[in-house]
């Protein structure tokens, strides 16, 4: 490959000879010869990256769905897939055993395998023994002792104790248990990768990002602006934040263009409003929620005050609490938020109560967090 000095020399020669039409053809050949290796190198890198992504997607499909392994799959990937398939058989055995002990709900076998895949795919030998598979799978359930009445015969009955498996819903709790069992830390990248794999297996596509439009969002009613008059105590920081948010009503939604002109998305709206009152918060809805949690700035839904942040989660996305959206509570069960579905900043009734996963009050920091 030509080094920068050589390429610079070629360009200099071309500039000096530019007035001589007879030299143009020669110069073109020289520059092409110098730059072709560079172009070819770039194309090879891009093709390699694309092939790597294809191999990863193919590996996930083959591990979870089965099927013949194509000859185009690299040998090392083929071996990893075979190892993972054998491990999945071991997991299936334990999942079946646990499922027989579940009374309510079910164990999400796809989740169990997606996490395992993220933690073990690519290792030289991911296969565990039966006790290790059990210890791993047990991290996804709680075991409870319950009592039931049984007939002993001759119309007599007695009480007996039995064990029930109760599937865990909290992924942070599951990862905490896995770290103890595996004796190592599980990184946020591994957790995000597990969620990505889970989404691809279950939905056929990657996880949703912040601001993606969700078809099942409830419609919104705009409310009346006079609703806020008696709700906002003048001089309070929360009231000031709401009033700032209301000045952005109708501003266009865009993740790509947020911060330019009047464009905003859900988290940029909250950043902008809070920054105006001297408080800096992180750049995404999930990071804002994490910030609130780590700083002890969370509140209950019953204690919401104007200016508080409301966080929603719709699908797994690998971020903190799988949060995908944030809005500013405006009082009287209203919220101001930048809606991707409506394409603008709106003032509306609170919606999707079952999807609200957290509430934060960063404005308690006052003007100190600069």
UniProtKB/TrEMBL annotation:
One of its GO terms (molecular function) is cysteine-type peptidase activity. The chain crosses the membrane at residues 27-46. Keywords: Hydrolase, Membrane, Protease, Thiol protease, Transmembrane, Transmembrane helix. The keyword Transmembrane helix applies. Pfam families: NLPC_P60 (PF00877). GO terms for biological process: proteolysis. It comes from the Bacteria. InterPro entries: NLP_P60_dom, Papain-like_cys_pep_sf, Peptidase_C40. Residues 235-370 form the NlpC/P60 domain. PANTHER family: MUREIN DD-ENDOPEPTIDASE MEPH-RELATED. Belongs to the peptidase C40 family. This is NLP/P60 protein. It comes from Ruminiclostridium papyrosolvens DSM 2782.
